[in-house]
Amino acid sequence: MIETRQTGRLIAHFLLIVAVIAMGFPLYYTFIASTHTSSEILSPPLSMLPGSNIAGAYGLALTKGASSAGNVSMTLMLWNSLVMALAIAIGKIVISMLSAYAIVFFRFPLRLVCFWMIFITLMLPVEVRIVPTYQVIVSLGLLDTYAGLTVPLMASATATFLFRQFFLTIPDELVEAARLDGAGAMRFFKDILLPLSRTNIAALFVVTFIYGWTQYLWPLLVTTDPAMGTIIVALKKMVNFSDADTPWDAVMATAILALLPPVAVIVGMQKLFVKGLVETEK
Amino acid sequence: MAQVELRNVRKTYPGSAAEVIKGVDVSVGDGEFLVLLGPSGCGKSTLLRMVAGLESISSGDAVIDGKTVNQLEPKDRNIAMVFQNYALYPHMSVFDNMAYGLKVAGLPKAEIAQRVGEAAEMLELTPYLERKPRALSGGQRQRVAMGRAIVRKPAAFLFDEPLSNLDAKLRTSMRMQIKQLQRRLGVTSLYVTHDQVEAMTLADRIMILNQGVVEQIGTPMEVYSQPASLFVAAFIGAPGMNFMDGTVSGGGHAVTLKTGEVLSLGSGAVASAQDGREVTLGIRPEHFALTPEGDGAHLTLTADYIEQLGADTLVHGKFGTGMLVVRVAGERSVAEGDKLALTATPEHLHLFDRESGRRIG
Asked: Which CATH architecture describes the domain B241-353?
């Protein structure tokens, strides 16, 4: 929608600016708060300009954290979150791509049954099956491990379905041409399907990375050792009922730190998105 | 360079009783260009795909280069196929598209580069080797698809309607290129099309299929001038052949039409045609001759509708219960409502059995 009249343009810009402020202000305020000391934060009004405690707040967060969160450094929490988010994202993509590949390109008995079995799991959210899943993880001795954190969240009906829909759009003749060229099943997957799926993979990576990064309930359950926690869980644990026991400067700094990796992933992947969209037109 | 032979090849899809291919026997000679022609759904593509190994053969044998290939994977049949929608790998450059099969086969890099280079040269694709297929025109993509077939140096080329995605002008020039290329390389070729012009211009021999049955195999001129059945007669030629019902008369030397006219079959009497036998008489629009009114005319036609094509004019008119089409020279002016007196030379009359539709004589 392009408005050419002056007043129309002004109104449009005004609305956009209001929206940007509404979206951006809380983030800005969090950042401002992370540069002041805890006592400054607790004695309003808080200045709208950055304070001088930036090193103190981030230093505290990155090294000691808070006593309520077990005094573990947020560097470790960031690392745990990164491992978890990456493992879930990559695991989801690998598993769902392979299962979609099997369902679409191979004729085997009970193919449709398999597809529907996967599809039906969409109906059950993590929360519904969380108790039995927890039981399984305990029995396998996977509490406080990366495997326990990630494996139960890897299988994904949604991603399988997405890849299936994409694979169905690949023309039969392309598959046949590859057969004539002598490409076997794995070769076809690697040389043709994988490069063609680049855009889908990038999109799915962003979505599942953020899904993994923002997990709260599951990591809270399967980790008891504070050193195995994720940054989201740690952030919640840092906040106490009483303001006096909460190191608000470190909390704000942690919140900012927790934001950065997902933002980096989106910004990084956006380039690939655009490139993929422009390039793989058939 | 090899023979391709089909021996009583049949195809039934699992779970269906109907046969799609009902016993095809044909032998394609070394370097021969055979066109499989027929309407949609006649089984011509299925037959080609059975040779390629993309469809299984229910019974009978496909033999390439003296070897029965029924059980072989497509890649082991020593054939190359060109698809209707080109089936190029969209993410690979022109070079990689052509080289892929050779890479998979594990040929040394130098040889791949040499073969692709030669093919690109032949197809005038050298300046485009680094481009992706989406940056090419339809004709160029088709040439890449051809190149992919050529670099493999196969025993046979299989073409599955390779030109139907191109516009009319490009189709004509690509047709010529394909023919010249095939001549030059001398590779046995099977070519599927529903376009009779493509079939007539490209083929050494044409095989006409109808509902999984071979109606006729012959050179383009044989198929045109001696159609083996009503189906072939109607399918080949545009506009199609005119058909009129009649009975044999005059001791097998003439046909009496339902409308009463008697057409002489000349001295070429039809031995098997007894007087009174029900036949369908066929005559092509271009084989009528105009005569001055009444001067020994066989038929008279009132022009209902006229199509001027430039070189020729097509005159449509009612005759009996059906329509007739007559092709006259473009310079002769005809108006709607004109009465045309027509003669037909005996050698251009085709007789078909009314029941079986097969040619008589």
From this structure: Beta Barrel (2.40)
